Amino acid sequence: MILLNEDSIFGKPSSPGLFVTVSLKHTDNRIWRNLLVPSDAHLGWFHAVLQIAMGWTNSHLHQFTFKDKTFSDPRFELYDPLTIDESKCSLAKLLTNSKDSLHYQYDFADSWDHTILLTKVGITPLAIAATCLEGGGACPP
Q: Does any domain span residue 6?
């Protein structure tokens, strides 16, 4: 479990939970995770969740794509002036309706492409942490 912020440690509610399915694309065997995450979580925090949930090592660059917008860590200096700082965008701003999806690319050389699909917005309980509910398959080494 990854807490969203220090307030979460003391039990203060964060936000409605988003139920998402993360799937690694272009693999012979299905590799997926069902996650419950706070809707007010920003993409930089969600990247850390994906690293743990999928079994990656956080040793490569990454980016998120939603429609025609790209989000990444500005410290990467990807030299694209249109790339938006991932810490300035919450999941709730992108994933609002069931079946909305977000693209996540990890390791630009090997290009591990993930689809993040919103399956449901939780009403209760409020999500204060990321939780992996179920999944299958291991990511490539």
A: yes
Residue 52 lies in a domain: yes
Q: What is the pTM of this model?
A: 0.86
Burial class, 121, CB count within 10 angstroms (exposed 0-12 / middle 13-18 / buried 19+): middle
Q: Which residues of the chain have pLDDT under 70?
A: 1-14, 123-127
What is the rounded CA–CA span in Å between residue 114 and residue 52?
A: 14
Domain assignment of residue 51, given as a range: 2-136
How does pLDDT run across 64-74, given as a tens digit for each residue?
Answer: 999 999 999 99
Residue 64 host element (H or E): strand 62-66
Instruction: Provide the number of structural domains found in the chain.
Output: 1
